[in-house]
Amino acid sequence: MNQESPEFWAQAAEQFQQAFSDNWNKTMQSFQGVDVGAAGTMASAPPVTLSPDRLMELQQQYVTDAMQLWNESVHAVPTSDDKRFKAEAWSHNPVSAFSASTYLLNARTLMAMAESVEGDEKAKARIRFAVEQWMAASAPSNFLAFNADAQQKAIETQGESIAAGLANLLHDMRQGHVSMTDESVFEVGKNVATTEGAVVFENELFQLIEYKPLTAKVYERPFLLVPPCINKFYILDLQPDNSLIRYAVAQGHRTFVVSWRNPDASLGNKTWDDYIEDAAIKAIAVTQEITGAKSINALGFCVGGTILTTALAVLAARGEKPVASLTLLTTLLDFSDTGILDIFIDEGMVKYREMEMGKGGLLKGQDLASTFSALRPNELVWNYVVGNYLKGETPPAFDLLYWNGDSTNLPGPFYAWYLRNTYLENNLIKPGKAIVCGEAVDLRKLDLPVYIYGSREDHIVPIGGAYASTQWLPGKKRFVMGASGHIAGVINPPAKNKRSHWIANHNKFPPTAQAWIASAKEYPGSWWADWSDWLAGHAGKQIAAPKAYGKGKYKVIEAAPGRYVKAKA
């Protein structure tokens, strides 16, 4: 049908009116309760209300804007800065331009409704999240019939982009996830995770890697890194120029890293206690035995920090203090502020997980990855759907996104304990409430010096959550805030001179992160150098670097990065 004909626009008007009606009906139905199925069940939110006056105001504004849009009709051009509709093809195609403008109007109105609902904060957060997911999925840019940019590319390539998109879709269906990068470019041990070292110990839960010194002398106190077990350790060793592991080695630290095994069915019964006793505590002991050091320095990243701190609390309850200093990177100990992830957690959801896998089983890595992707659906889901499938593009090679897609499983009992005792009940900060490895966890016994880092825009460990550790750890503390998010804020080497960090030139830690930030000073560039200076102050004197890996019974098993990190979920 000719796009300039009256029949065409009459049909478009009818579709517009129908969409208008459907949007209001669906929205009001959804506001009576929300069920979001990302990575498991999220219980329905309690009923919420919307003020009749506010609803009428929104309706009137919607009708006004809709009539203005309709009057523009064929001349409608998306006016938003939304990058999904920035390509010139959108403004040159009347149907696509009108559909984009209609969508943006609906999105503004729906989000205004979500912001206006009255109810408890968790219910409102769930409403906002559900609306965001709905709007992200329903964008006209996601459909070839409306995506003018993809249509233009199909014409320019004589259909080759559509053929390539179908091939990309079949490839991603076979691999089980949407490609965010050209995964064929990377191979663990060849062009990511390449810092030289050797595996010197392994059990069924982890391998311990010792790295080859890059300096003639090393500090006498060795350094152990415990990464999150929900991801693979090489986020800390992507490339030589952004590797925190290589940086630590180059600073003269004899460095050891835990490489978690990617659990299969044989590990489906492993518990939180197993990961504390047989992994974190064992890694500390083996590091001590190999180096002969009475105490070590240790770092935990994200969940790795929660695991490491719990292990130190267990050891403290036993009268043991093998760690001289602790570094926590984007770590939650106090789960009062968990940001957007809080919408997934309630008693019903946790009980469901306990019944499903509390006695055994695996949480699939892809389920967990889907949850984190859903937190930023346009950037981490639909952006790649459009590029890969509608335009037939191969995403560019990016090491961080390769790592992001290299997911790991979790043992069900471990995951169920973690959900209840941290996100739901926040037991780690309650002295004696959490019993781990037969010991009562009491963070007040951890009187060691601690370096605590949080990222300002972190949506997984909000800055308030990272800062909260200052309120519970009694030792001498240093808190530093970096720019950017959960990963980019951490992986920020000094040589790149990017972003900023904030430090308060005092040793006071008020109750809230906002109060601390108000007293902090911004410094350009990475926080790594500040941390390195701090760590050196706890590393002891320098001694001759070892000439071989391991010691005694701890012999080289294989070259780093080892086979555990190469296992796919």
Secondary structure layout plus pairing:
Elements: H1 6-30, H2 52-72, H3 88-92, H4 94-116, H5 121-138, H6 148-156, H7 160-175, E1 197-202, E2 206-211, E3 217-219, E4 223-226, H8 244-250, E5 255-260, H9 272-291, E6 296-301, H10 303-317, E7 323-329, H11 347-357, E8 362-363, H12 365-374, H13 377-390, H14 399-405, E9 410-411, H15 412-424, E10 435-436, E11 439-440, E12 450-455, H16 463-467, E13 477-482, E14 500-503, H17 513-518, E15 521-524, H18 528-536, E16 542-544, E17 558-559
Parallel strand pairs: 4-5, 4-6, 6-7, 7-12, 12-13
Antiparallel strand pairs: 1-2, 1-17, 2-5, 3-16, 8-9, 10-11, 13-14, 14-15
Keywords:
41% helix, eleven-stranded mixed sheet, two-stranded antiparallel sheet, alpha/beta, 569 residues
The SS-based structural class is alpha/beta
Strand line-up in the sheet with most strands: 15-14-13-12-7-6-4-5-2-1-17
**Cα-atom radius of gyration:** 26 Å
Number of DSSP-assigned strands: 17
Low-confidence residue ranges:
23-44
Q: Give the helix tally.
A: 18
Shape label: globular
% residues in beta strands = 5-15%
Distance between the termini: 49 Å
- Assign a percent range to the helix content: 40-55%
Describe the protein's architecture and organization.
- The protein is an alpha/beta fold.
- 41% of the residues lie in helices and 12% in strands.
- It is built from 18 helices and 17 strands.
- The strands form 4 sheets. It has an 11-stranded mixed beta sheet, with helices on both faces. It has a two-stranded antiparallel ribbon with strand order 3-16.
- Helix 7 crosses helix 13, helix 9 crosses helix 10 and helix 11 runs antiparallel to helix 15.
- The longest helix has 25 residues.
- The chain is globular, with a radius of gyration of 26 Å.
- About 4% of the residues have low confidence.
